[in-house]
Amino acid sequence: MNDNNTDAKSSRAEDDKIERIRQPRSKTPLIIALVVVVLGVIIFINSMVITNENEYKLIKQFGKVERIVTSAGLSFKIPFIQTSDKLPKTMLLYDLTASDVITQDKKTMVVDSYVLWMITDPLKFTQTLTNITNAEGRINTIVYNSMKNIISSMDQSDVISSRDGALSQAIMNNIGSSVDQYGIRLVAVETKHLDLPSDNKAAVYERMISERNNIAASYSANGEADAKIIRTETDNKIIVDVSEAEAEAEEIIAEGEAEYMRILSEAYNTPERAEFYTFVRALDAAKKSLKGQKTLILSSNSPLAEIFNKVE
User: Fold this and answer.
1) Which pLDDT tens digit goes with each residue over 105-128?
2) Is pLDDT above 80 for 306?
3) Assign residue 109 a region: left if phi > 0, alpha if psi is -120 to 50, beta otherwise?
4) Do 55 and 75 touch, CB atoms closer than 8 A?
5) Does the pLDDT of residue 262 top 60, yes or no?
6) DSSP string covering 27-84
7) Longest distance between any two alpha carbons in the chain, whole Å
8) How far apart are CA 40 and CA 46, in angstroms?
9) Of 2.60.40.1470, 3.40.190.290, 3.30.479.30, 3.40.50.150, which CATH number belongs to 92-196?
10) Residue among 170, 172, 176, 88 at smallest CA distance from 133
């Protein structure tokens, strides 16, 4: 009886041992599969390169650029061996520090400008400038030197008058294509602030006001001289025109009086008509002699009295 119990216990112990061995062996493939899947996902994710519209993607291997992705979308690289870096594809703004420059006439000007630029060749950019910070430092040096060269060849008054864009264009022309070697392009150099140092500003403004007043006085004097010439010529022409008009009027009056006398002569060419004309003229003379009086006193030998006596 005891032997049977002992055998039963030994059998159960052996079964438990076999079960414990079987259980880990049945989970091993699942764990391996999970590990493979996780590694696969990690490798797949690490091999993906997502490029946006506003950027370049640089695929590097051991620090060297192998290729550049310029189009937006999904691409792939060798995981863990190749890495990706990005550069902006959009227009960038760099604000230069305000600086002093000397004009041709030895005057100091304070210039505050900014630059619009963009990367055109990412491979050349990476090989020469490496990153944006280095690029901005190089742009600062190039633009400042060009600005200094341009302003140093101009008088202060010319610099001030060129603030409407002429100065920026001159700086761009001076820079030219010198930045092409870095794989970048300067879109524009704009001047935000162009002014004089505080200690020079008042004196320059006074001189400019004086110059403008002199120019205005010169214009006024020239205008007054021209106006005087025009008035003199106009007055002379008016005198000539009036003289000619008066002469022509006198000529017309004389012709009219002659015609009037001719008509009268024809109208009173008989004794009867002449006597009537003399009578009418005598009446006109008597009328003028009355001058508001009601009585006309004539001597007996007056020509008017003789005319009236003849009528009687």
Assistant:
1) 888 888 899 999 999 999 999 999
2) no
3) beta
4) no
5) yes
6) HHHHHHHHHHHHHHHHHHHHHEEEE-TTEEEEEEETTEEEEEE-SSEEEE--TTTEEE
7) 212
8) 10
9) 3.30.479.30
10) 88
Q: At 287, list the tokens.
A: 């009328």
Question: How many CA atoms lie less than 13 Å away from 61 in the CB half-sphere?
Answer: 9
Task: Please state the domain extents for the chain.
Answer: 18-87, 92-196, 200-267, 269-311
What is the total residue count of the chain? 312
* Structure-block tokens of residue 61: 């291997």
| pLDDT tens digit sequence for 25-79 | 557 888 888 888 888 888 888 888 899 999 999 999 988 988 999 888 888 888 8
User: Cα(13)–Cα(16) distance, rounded to whole angstroms?
Assistant: 5
Do 146 and 168 form a contact (C-beta atoms < 8 A)?
A: no
pLDDT tens string 136-182: 999 999 999 999 999 999 998 888 888 778 888 999 999 999 999 99
Q: What is the spatial distance between Cα 312 and Cα 306, in angstroms, rounded to a whole number?
A: 10
Rounded CA gap, 252 and 284, in Å?
26
Separation of alpha carbons 90 and 221, rounded Å: 58
